[in-house]
Structure formats: structure tokens, C-alpha cells
């Protein structure tokens, strides 16, 4: 008996031009285009195994070892349904292929990073879901075509269908068929691009991005200006900066757009705050770091960006990352030793401040204010894994434990 | 020998439509109109004594007991010089009046609130300076005329020339002659309007409003939209709300405009943050307080607003203020007992939360996060005091100690 199964991993992406606001909440069509850097799956990934079998009685999804109900008409059901439709089309065009589109599916998905880290796992999760079904169904679809479906699971998931530098073009069709991800440049174009994720703990429960962005659409008086005037220019600037490998412009646009996004969140009624005092201190650290570099005739060397939470992601080039990690460890003392997946500090991090940096600008935070640092880099798109080794499902199609 | 001297006190004002951005930094002409409530001088005031004397060798100003240098071409020199010009015109028109416009002046000014409280003392200070010179010079100038001069000392000072509810009309003349304060309504129109100043300590040194607002003008992509589209509509709404004594609209516009101002500060490069985690918690408290009231069929009862610092000012009507003080004392335990200038709590504050308030929305802060509460109300304009009793200068014209 043939087993129809595939296992795929998909990456996290962190936007440098932010997505905030939907013009269609069902199809998840955004009010502006956005652009992200895909992070390396060696460090952060979602892995998903999908299997189709005639004997399965219903579609089931296990997320991190726990069943996640597939609600009728919900986002999971939409993605799975759309993928089955594509398989059906493929079967109709290729009559010799097995008719598995009518089978129920069992899907198991894991993230290799703790949910508590506050990293958006929905992007990598839905990208892995769609990619694993595409592999199972042997679909000829391009990543952009698959991004149309991932988008309906979680908007920013569409950008995780590509590696490197990825734009989500907002599109204009009411059907959403032109609201998809495209590659701006592959990871190989600018492999020196790295990222340091600073996990910031927060006592306050945040506003979910889904409800937050709709409140912004409904109440902010500044959002429309951001959408119409600010973002389109920044998209052009950012695409040019990436193509030219112009880190200064990349960094300046990244920081400004992060602030612009948090500004419209604050302009919401009631206001939405995602950054806290530790986030503010990270910004102050990076601002002073760049100021000191530029004052000494050097370049802008780092860019902060914040999603819908207090965590910072610092983008920098490989050459500067060791200095930045030492700096962050100086002002945000780590309770645990720095995991060093890329082997930057063979004998451990010696925290410190670069020459010319005014230490009075930032106060040393309490140990653990930044609870974890994740050093990674620009990475590739979804990977089809060796299912015989990486499967998350047991032989009988139940969750492997 | 005649002593030419006058002592005047002037009030603090807290804007409900914020001033942020200058179109002329020398004349202090704003990029948008603004509107404020004048607070009661019984609680918060600057007091200034001015004396003109032929024997004085130079203009001197003492601020809170310390000489404050009057720099040539600076804001103090401008205000004093403009007032002397008005006196000269008055003398030319009234030849029998003594020719004191050519005399040097000694000026002593005090605030009755600590600078450490982080309240903008420049508004009350420049209003008291200009008013005391106007009294000394016996000028027939109207408050609006004097506001033109106070404006050149500190923009928001122009609004402290009136009591009650005051608009600063931005004007359009390049000379600044139409950028002045006007009364929207006197305090007697809506005497129930009260304010609770929550003094929030902050470890981080803030950005001065003078430099901050210029950076916003230079770098924010959202400010122009705020100036052109958002504020003009809000000015109309707010004037109407005050004339109608419509607290719901007053509160909603106040909170939205505070957030809009902080949003454009955040949209500045590098970003400017004035609110901290305690400020955020105060906002969350007021949002939940209003939500609970509205959910129970009641009205919006409180409005927060934040100037260029972490302190909150909560506007509310007299009938609700006791409940609000109890609520604030519950979530922000006071290290010192509440000064109760209006005798709301004859036997001390019993902190507590009103019915329907979800206590899980806000965490109780560390004692002293809000270091002081000042309960006050809408107040009147500058007052000419009995100089024989209130003078800040000694008989010989030196600082009284």
C-alpha cells in the first residue's frame, strides 16, 4: 500500500516594511505592500508532515504535539481546502495520477523555537503547511502561486514561501489573485545580512495583531497617509537598497518603517503599544551605536525593527555582528549563556562597548530583561526534507510521540 | 521716591489639542493651532515680581532663587524687550506718564511646584513674566495682545494668559501678529472640569520639547498629515464640545490627540518616546475605566493626556474625580499620603476599583511609580497680587531671601 506523505520545513520572516491593516479580512488582502528578510531555517523553522490516506475519517492537525481544531470556514480549513482543489486540478490534467485529492489529511507541525519567545510562528507555520501539502500533492505550483494560499492562513506567511528578500505585493484585485509574494533577491545576493533576535519579556498581555490592525484601520487618522504616501515610496527605496546592497539605506528605511508602524498602532483608539521600556532601551542603544560610528566617519551598522510585540530584531552585516552582540550583552546582561550557533565567540562573549559609544545614553538593564538572543542570518525558502528521517507522523498516520 | 513694581501670578495650562512643531523657530510660530485648559492657580502657579528702576545697571532675572542669565537675542531678552517697547508706545501716547521704559528691570520668579515634578513651568513662567511687566507698565494691552509676546518666550505660554478654555490660533502671517491666544470659554462656563496630575518618575532623560519638535518637523512622514488634516478637524470638534459641555467628545478628542502627538514623536528619526511603561499602565487603567462605565450604560468619565514627558494629566468632571483618585491609588500605590487640597477625602483615600472594572487588565504598580498626585480644576487667568504682601524682591530691588 502506497503512503502519500511529505515533510517540509519553512522559515520565519521578519518584515522591514511592515504589514499592518487588511482591506479584506476574509481573503487577507493587505492595505499596503510589505517586504521582509527570510531567516535561516538552520536556526528558526516550522516543520510539517502531511499525509493523505483513504482510511482517514477527518482532517486532523497537530500543532506542537497537540490537536488544533480545524474550524469550518476558518483559516486552516481554507488553506487545506485550497490545496486539495489544486491537487484536484492536477489530477484532472494528469489522469494517471492517484486520486488522493478526495482523501482526508493528517498534518503534524512543530516549531523549533518556543512559543514563549514571542516570535510570529504563524508565518513559518502556514508556509510549512502549504509547502508540505504541495510536496505531498506533487503540485507544479510556483512559490508565488502557493503564497496566494498561505496568505489566506496568515498574511505574512506568504512571504515565507521564498528565501532571501521577499516582497508581498498588495495587489488590487478584489479576488486577491494578485496579492502574492515575489522574490526581490535570493539569499546568495547578500549573504552577509544577519539578524539578532532579542527576546524581550513583557508583563502586559499584548493585543493580537489580527484585532489590533483592524482597530487601526477603523480608528487611526494617520494610517491612510502611511498606506498611500509613505509605504509606496519606502518599498521602492528598500528594493533599490537591497539590489544595491546599500546597508545604510536598508537600515534607515527599516528603522523608520518600524517606528511608523508603531506610530499608527499608538494612533489607534484605544492606543496599541507593543514596545515597552526594554524595547525603548534597545532602540536607544542602536541609535547611539550608529551615531558613534557615523561620528567617527563610519557607516550606519545596525537596524532595529519590532513586530507586534516587545522583541527586537537587529539586522546587521556579518562583519559587525560580533561587536553588536557584545554591545547588547553589555546593556542587557544575559541570565543564560549566549547560544552561538555560528561560532562567533569560541571562548564565550566578552560584553563590551565600542570606542566612541557614550555609555551614559543607556542604562544597564536588569539581568534577563532580554531573556534570550538568537543569532541568525538571511536564509532560503521552504525545504522538502527526507520524510523517512524527519516525519512527524507515526506509521499508522497518527501523531508520532 | 516712587517704586515701580508689580507682582503677578500666572497659571499652568495643559493642552488637549497638542502643539508640536514650529514653522518659525525664532518667532515661535506653530505648525498647527492648539487648545488647552488653564489649571487653578490655587494649586499650580508661577509668581513673578518685576521692578523698573533708574538705578539698576542691567536687567536681571532670578528663577526660583537663582539668577537665570538673560542672553542677548534669547527668549527672555526678546520678551523683556517687547514689553519695554509697548511701554514706550504707551509713554509716547501719554506724555504725563513716567518714562520708565528706559529703566533696567529686576525680575524674580518662583514656581510653587517642584521642577522635579516635570510639569511644564515655562508656560506659567513666561505668562507671569509678561503679565507682571504689563502690570508694572500699566499697559492697556488685552490678554491676546500680551499672548503675542509670551508666545515668543515659550509657545504654550501664550495660552496661560487666559483662564478657562483657551485656543492658540496658529495664524498665517509671517510676522506672527495673528498667532495668539483667544478665550474659548471662561472657567465659569464649565467649572466642573477638574484635573488629576499623575507625576511619573522616569529613569531616562527625555528629549527637550524644543529640539524634539524640530526633529519631528524635519523627519516625520506623518506630521504633515496631522497638521493639515487631523488637527483642524479636532479644533472644531473640541471648541464645539467645550461650548456644549459635552464631556464624552471632549474626552475622546483629548485622548486621541494625545496619542496622535506621541505617534508623530515616535515617527521621528531617531524616534522620541515620552511615555514609559507606567504611562502605558495609566492609559490602560483609564481605557478600562471608561469601558466599564460605557458597558454599564454610563458615560465616558475620564480622559488622559500626556505632554513631552511621562506624567499623565487626567481630566474628569467633579462628580467622578473621587472615584478616579481611588482607582489611581489602587493601581499606583502612593508612597506619600494624597494631598487633598479640595477636601474630597476628609478621612483619607480608600483606594478601590469601581463596579464592573476588570482588575486583570492592569497590574498593580510598584509603590511610588506614580510619585505624586495633584488634584486641581479649571482656573482663571493671571492675577495681579498685592505687591506689598507678595513681592519677591527686597526693598532695595535685590532678590528677597
Automatic annotation (TrEMBL), chains A, B:
Q: Does the keyword Lipid biosynthesis apply?
A: yes
> What are the protein's UniProt keywords?
ATP-binding, Lipid biosynthesis, Lipid metabolism, Lyase, Nucleotide-binding, Steroid biosynthesis, Steroid metabolism, Sterol biosynthesis, Sterol metabolism
Q: Which residues form the Mvd1 C-terminal domain?
A: 195-385
* Catalytic activity from the UniProt record: (R)-5-diphosphomevalonate + ATP = isopentenyl diphosphate + ADP + phosphate + CO2
**Per the UniProt entry, what is one GO biological process?**
sterol biosynthetic process
Domain Diphosphomevalonate decarboxylase-like N-terminal: start-end pairs: 10-181
Pfam families, per the entry:
MDD_C (PF18376), MVD-like_N (PF22700)
Signal peptide range equals: none
Gene3D superfamilies the record matches: 3.30.230.10, GHMP kinase, C-terminal domain
Q: Kindly give the SUPFAM superfamilies that the UniProt entry links to this protein.
A: GHMP Kinase, C-terminal domain (SSF55060), Ribosomal protein S5 domain 2-like (SSF54211)
Q: What pathway is this protein said to act in by its record?
A: Isoprenoid biosynthesis; isopentenyl diphosphate biosynthesis via mevalonate pathway; isopentenyl diphosphate from (R)-mevalonate: step 3/3
Molecular function GO terms recorded:
ATP binding; diphosphomevalonate decarboxylase activity
> EC?
4.1.1.33
What the record says about family reads: Belongs to the diphosphomevalonate decarboxylase family.
Full protein name: Diphosphomevalonate decarboxylase
